[in-house]
Amino acid sequence: MIEKAEEIRVREHKLKLSLRLRTREGVYRFIHDEGLVSFLGGNELPSFISAILGRSWKPSAKGFTGWMDWWSVKISGQPVAQISREVEGREDILATRLFRRTKTFVSSRIWPILDPVVKHHRGLVQKGEILSDLEQQLLKTIGGESSIRTDRLRKKLELDGKENNSRFHRALNNLETYALIIGVEDPHPETHLHANIWQTWETRTRSGIDRTGPSYEKALAKLLEKTIDACVLAREDQVRKWFQWSADMEAIKEELLRDEAFLRAGLYLVSSRVRDVNN
């Protein structure tokens, strides 16, 4: 089963040169087909960068110099960075850091599943059970605007100084891991290069989903199932590292295994689609 899963993963994640993504329409379709797509990769999800290269790629110790592997690649005649900005600015795709705290593209078909999870954690914020004081301030400030750019956000919270860089960006990143806020790179950055424009989850997804979704537990189950389906296979001992709320998923994982929503094969969890291919 593992061998068959690997074959499916190579095909679906576009890990052969003959399968690589070559057009922006292909990129959009890839993200919607998979539901969850890691930007850089190096984890279990399908990877945007790997799919445009047609081979497995992951960040290395070389840092930004490793990006030269794909920086010059063109998609529909446009640089990868431009296509990435277009992707995260679309109305039907957003980018956040919910999977392994790394930039992840999320198709609108996953939003109704994720919405109850975000609502649950929004409730925990209101009870003061999660987030630091700074993170709560950031969330409140972003929520008070339809959208706000990074430099204005820093100014409003009086965090302009370089000494605040680390804690400010760490707080933003943590909010992104809960999908409480969504950022998109400002297409007109003026003097602030690569500045993000921030919105709350509710504002960003306002017209994209029906708010009467499943319960938190059912949403977690569906999210885990969809994630493993996108991964095709993953080591079971790594699942607890995927999400901020992974501790809430352990019992749900066992229930899904009993229901054969996905399968256990040795050390791995495997999409049930692999079994269906075998039959």
Task: Give an account of the 3D structure.
The radius of gyration is 19 Å and the shape is globular. It has 279 residues and is α+β, with helices and mostly antiparallel strands. The mean pLDDT is 92. The chain has helices at 2-12, 24-34, 48-53, 68-71, 80-89, 111-126, 133-143, 150-156, 165-177, 201-204, 216-231, 250-258, 272-278, and strands at 36-38, 74-75, 78-79, 93-99, 102-107, 148-149, 181-185, 196-200, 233-235, 262-265, 268-271. The termini are close together. Strand 2 and strand 3 (78-79) form a beta hairpin. The protein has three domains: 2-109, no CATH class; 112-204, Arc Repressor Mutant, subunit A; 218-278. The chain is 45% helix and 15% strand. A three-stranded antiparallel beta sheet has the order 1-5-4. A three-stranded antiparallel beta sheet has the order 6-8-7. It has a three-stranded antiparallel beta sheet with strand order 9-11-10. It is built from 13 helices and eleven strands. Helix 6 (111-126) packs across helix 11 (216-231).
